[in-house]
Structure formats: structure tokens, C-alpha cells
Amino acid sequence: MRRHAAIIGGGIGGLATAIALGNDGWRVTVHERDAALPATGTALGMWPAALRALDEIKTGHLVRETGAPQQSGEVRRPDGSRIVTIRTPTADPIHLISRPALLRILHRTATATADLRFSDPVDRIDGLDADLVVVADGVFSRTREQLFGSGYQARYSGGTAWRGTIDGMATSTFVEVWGRGVKFGVTPQEGGRTNWFAAAGAPEGDFHPGAEAATLRRMFDGWAAPVSQVLDAVTEGGILRHDVYVAPALPTHVSGNAVLIGDAAHAMTPDLGRGACEALIDAVTLAECLRAASTVAGGLAAYDSRRRPATRRLSRMAAAAGRLTRVRHALPIRDGLLRASMLAGPPA
Ligand SMILES: Cc1cc2nc3c(=O)[nH]c(=O)nc-3n(C[C@H](O)[C@H](O)[C@H](O)COP(=O)(O)OP(=O)(O)OC[C@H]3O[C@@H](n4cnc5c(N)ncnc54)[C@H](O)[C@@H]3O)c2cc1C
User: What pairs with residue 166 in β-bridges?
Assistant: First the structure.
């Protein structure tokens, strides 16, 4: 009889896992809380290792065709001067693709082999009957708390983010601009749009609905293009504002026949732009480990030993990068540290 996998969450990690396990002959059911795929969302950078993971589930070509390729980028000061150049470590450039476009590609591919159920939230993991349960319900994972206890709730990182896209404004610039404790990023996005984000330290929940655009214009007043151009074009309704939460470090990503992947397992701050990439790598690594093992338990143990240390290391690096962003004094030292950290290239 075919083995059955139940997947909680039809986001990036859940859908990628559905494809990977479906290709290996598993019967797969995906339980997604939301009624439909999101219609709007900002760009995610797909790094080479994530593109290789997408290749393994035969979707890499679609992401490369759709996304905006980027061979290098820059970190600059507010006056436009360059602090450091960031280069993609291989010939395979980063591709920037919006979350909705990536999800559409994964969803279309997953429907060939998986039973995808929208408006189907999972309240209790013990209500699922399957040989394998993949917990892919994101940073605020309720299943993580059920398995590990209330001490494993998502934690506020101390940082907040504003994001948006500008239609009808194309850019080839891939830039982060670092000021005194705040940063602003501008990247291309598919469809000739400009993707932008801003980050700062802030008290949790300190939102100002209706005044976010004014807050941003004040915070980044006088910054050189492209920040000034983006802020001229930003509208209040086009701003997404989120506090950034992280998942606490777990002692294991496995509990019985359940395995946590993606943000449910290791949500990190977005400072390396790697969370979605790691969810994709989790998905294909999980399938590979299960394929190589004679039992589900053996496959999950192998998965845990491969992915938990690697994602822990990236979470720490992302947190350190976030702390560097929020430095308000001794900026030349900060810039030197940033340059030194880039000498070895971005983390593998
Ligand atoms: C500001 C910002 C910028 C970022 N930029 C990048 C970037 O450039 N590159 C990158 O790689 N990553 C980036 N990330 C990180 C990336 O967004 C996440 O790491 C990624 O979305 C994680 O995927 P996931 O599938 O684990 O979780 P999610 O995408 O959160 O998906 C979880 C899914 O589970 C569903 N769900 C939740 N609860 C239940 C339930 N009880 N039952 C059923 N379904 C449920 C949700 O509806 C959702 O569809 C960024 C994040 C932020 C905040």
C-alpha cells in the first residue's frame, strides 16, 4: 500500500514537500488554512542552493523563466556611496520572484500528484492519520507548540519591516542602504515592478495605520536614489507592515512520525533573505532522506541531523546580521565588519 503523508500548511515548504514526496510515490494530502493562494506579496530572493532544490522538483526552470535574475548587488550608505558589493557565489544568479508567483508554480506542479485542500486548518496534529506528518505551518506554528510546549511560541525579534512593490517602475538595482539603525532595500521583481523593503528596531506592535508612508518618508528623509524615488512613488495602501518573529531553537525537528520544516522549524530574521530558500531545501532533503532509509523513523533521524545544525547556523548568522543593521554608532567599524563578513561570500 502507498505510504501516506499529511502536510500541515500549503505555503512554500509544504507545497515543495508535496511535490517531492508525490514524485517518490507517496500519497500526499496538504491541509491549508487559507481559502486560496495569496494574490499579492513581495519578492523573495532564490539563492543558488534553493534553485537547485527547485530543479530537483522540476520547477527550477519555471522560477528562472519567471523571476528577475541578479548577479550582484550592493550595500550602500544613505548618500549613495558603496560599502560593499555582494556577488552570487556561482554562475547561477539569484532570481527574485514574488511569493504569489512562486506559490502558483509550486501549486500548479503539486496538483499533479497531491490532494490539496484549502480552507482546511489543522487544529490538532493528533487528529491526522498518516504514516508521516509534515509540519509546515509557518513561524506561528500551533503544531510546534502542541509538540514541544508553550515555551516554543514564536518570539519577537525586536525588528519590524515595511514592504511593498511599485507597479510600472522597473529597476535593475539590487541594493540595501544602511543608515543609523535602519535600512532600506530595493530589488527588481518580475513583471517590470520594483520591490522594496525597510527595516528598523521598534517596540512590538507599534503600528501607525494610515501614517506608515509618512513614517517612512521621515525616517529616510534625504536618502539618495533609489530610496528617494521609491518613497516618492509609495502609497499608504501599498505598504505591508509586519513585526518580525523568529522560532526558538528546537532540541529536534522530529517528534514521533512528525517532522517540522521551514519557518515552523527555524523561522529566522529576513536579514540574509534565506527563509523561503531553506524551506525549499528542507523539502527536497526530507524526501531524499526518506528515500534512502528503510523506515520513516530512520529517514527522519537522518533529516534532523542534516538540516537542524545547518539551519541553526543560518538563524544565528541572520540574527547577527540583523544586529549589525541596527547599530547606531561607530558606523565605519560596522561597515568594516560588513565588508569582512562578505570576503568569504554569502553563507552557503
Ligand atoms: C520581511 C521578510 C522578507 C523576506 N525575504 C525573504 C527572501 O528574500 N528570501 C527568502 O528565501 N525568504 C525570505 N523571507 C522568509 C520567507 O518568507 C519564509 O521563510 C517562508 O515563507 C517560509 O515558508 P514556510 O512554507 O515555512 O511558511 P509560510 O510561507 O508561512 O507558510 C505556512 C502556511 O501554513 C498555513 N497554516 C498556518 N497555520 C495552519 C494550520 N493550523 N493549518 C493549516 N495550514 C496552516 C499558512 O496559511 C501558510 O500558507 C522573508 C520574510 C520576511 C518576514
Answer: 194
